Amino acid sequence: MVRLTKIYTRTGDGGRTALGDGKRVAKTHPRIAAYGCVDELNAVIGLALAQRGLSREDRALLRGIQNDLFDVGADLCVPRLARERAGEHLRITSGQVEALESALDARNEKLAPLTSFVLPGGRLPAAWLHMARVVCRRAELAVARLIQSAPKRVGTHVLPYLNRLSDLLFVMARVANDGGRSDVLWKPGAGQTRTDATPVRKRARRRSGGRRAPG
To answer: Where are the domains of the chain?
Structure first.
């Protein structure tokens, strides 16, 4: 049971903070950065949930994911031990990863195949889900950097969980965009004009009246 009676402690005023195992590290430590990103992701999902337009089923799924993300934070804040006993610390499980895969497959099979990349946007809940997706990718990269700096010191299923979650958030954004019908598709080169396509050297020559620069 978590019991919070005082919000500020002043113990971090010197730029250091405590991990879940009691060890104190700099607030710039890769582990702190990793679960800080996860916390940000959770907050963005909260903003998505604050919008109208999500189905009851998707709301329930996102609430469950928010709870999972606290599990991810708990996993990250306690470095994994070389001989850690099963259940000794809270860790993300393979079952939590598989649950995301099942949710992803169930939603994706109802969507029409994409013919182009999707621009973030459309309806408001979809836009926030796209925002959650990119923050999730950043959290995934932060965890990957942590694993590079401390191999085998991170729970086995944290990175797969975040990887699947970013894919699920993309699919959920499409679902929130009226099943993909309100998706905004990328049109390659749509912003180019003939002027833009003119070689730089020719444009510079026109500005100078056709004169060549000395040399």
So the answer is: 16-187
pLDDT digits (tens, 9 = 90+) for 65-103: 999 999 999 999 888 877 777 777 889 999 999 999 999
Cα gap 90→88, rounded to integer Å: 7
Q: pTM value?
A: 0.81
Contact 54, 48 (CB under 8 A): yes
**Average of per-residue pLDDT values in the chain:** 85
CA angle 166, 167, 169 (to 5 degrees): 65
Which residues, 6 or more positions from 149, have their beta carbon under 8 angstroms from its beta carbon?
30
C-alpha R_g of the chain: 23
Write down the CATH number for the domain with range 16-187: 1.20.1200.10
